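Backbones bend. To wit:
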Amino acid sequence: YFLCTEYRTVSGVAGPLVILDKVKGPKYQEIVNIRLGDGTTRRGQVLEVDGEKAVVQVFEGTSGIDNKYTTVQFTGEVLKTPVSLDMLGRIFNGSGKPIDNGPPILPEAYLDISGSSINPSERTYPEEMIQTGISTIDVMNSIARGQKIPLFSAAGLPHNEIAAQICRQAGLVKRLEQSDNLLEDGEEDNFAIVFAAMGVNMETAQFFKRDFEENGSMERVTLFLNLANDPTIERIITPRIALTTAEYLAYECGKHVLVILTDMSSYADALREVTSLTDITHPTPDLTGYITEGQIYIDRQLHNRQIYPPINVLPSLSRLMKSAIGEGMTRRDHADVSNQSLDLAWTLLRIFPRELLHRIPAKTLDQYYSRDAAH
């Protein structure tokens, strides 16, 4: 039995953070209920504990909070999200509340959004390919189940369109026995997609909703939308709620789940805004390139030439591709087909006189330009 105690000890407000004094036994990540003077109730989470002081991040923003009438109640619980198989085909806000005018979700369980770590030594090595329907990815940068891979992009590039296309076309690939043919498994009932958009504007949110609904992929998608004008703190819990939902669909419902998160830059900026640490490094590289198994590079020059999708193959990389392709997984000649495009490029370059190839290093030309290098 936990006795909830209300405190009226707000000592300061800083952005989305509220500082409380004289609090007995606050716990890290504990959920608190904040009641304003006008009766409005908001939720928050303990971000830092120092003796009897607690720093609370408020999910709905701190506007209107004062130190005279505001009361804070510590619940003793961590943040949990309701999950259910009925979440497929539904649209939620960044806090996991339905926003598609549909009926309420009847939860089958309430799960801690912080989750628990997986023992790496007990994990099955990724050796099964996910087909995206984009040749530059499937042929030359194949993605395996269980792999994390970012789309490196910039403002004005069609990363949202590519993410939506992957969501529409993605499917599992399994080998037919004693055959070089592939069986596309993407339409089976055991495949689902969890799509979370963080910090997007209303136009982008409408694009995702319209795209999924018009192309018939919405029935296998759970869509979370955190808008740019939503509270910053909500942006931090959105990917956690999405991943918790994905884990439930995978581990409890037996589904293969593809998770797509966009835009990690907005998530990283939100972390910088609410952090209580004195870390001067930027979280974007730590959350993308440093912890992933490769990258898909979206190139502005290709985009300016109206090439779609403008994916530059050479800077792109899939570190788990070698384990997910070849005989017994995709096709026996998959690796050869991937490498043949480079041979084809040199065949085209040899049409031009060597002295015109100014942008290619001399050592590279010495090694590959001669006709003998082709054999």
About this structure: The first helix runs from residue 135 to 138.
